User: Fold these one by one.
Assistant:
Number 1:
Amino acid sequence: MSSQLTLVVYSRAKPGMEEELGKRLLTLVEPSRAEEGCISYDIHQSNDDPAVWMAYENWRSEDDLALHFTMPYLRAFADRKDEVLAEPLDIRKFSLKS
């Protein structure tokens, strides 16, 4: 069985902070994709509600995801998230079944 994990993270921007949240999320893409355990890392914005953003991530293993959460650029985002988020992040973890 595969140990691959998919992470889907929903975030909602404070009113007027939609673009700023998007900018901050997009700065995470390149360094995250460069991590050895990252299979894919993409950011999406809702077509129906521009305040809603989604990160769709695939990781090789739970250990790789745990390492990702320690990265300085992700820690920096987390430290300042309350400036732009209207509510806590909605983080959902999925396991690949095949």
Note: The chain has a mean pLDDT of 96.
Number 2:
Amino acid sequence: MSKAVKLDHEFDIDKYTELLTKAQGGRSQTEFANDCGLSVAYICKYLNKKFDKAPIPSTIKKIAACAAGGVSYSELLEAAG
């Protein structure tokens, strides 16, 4: 009998989207994306849960660097798996 091994840390799109929304604060998606140095399309895809792949750590750092609402790099990283 073999069992599939469940990963300890999976990408939690719901939690990641929640944190991303909080990190956006009162800014528009365009303002938030520009502040993070990311494309608007990229931010929108995560906010609308269109990506099922976790962002890479360097992208998470960009978001954390301009995050509002006290959202930290470690919170984003944990949600990303």
Note: Confidence is low (pLDDT under 50) at residues 1-7.
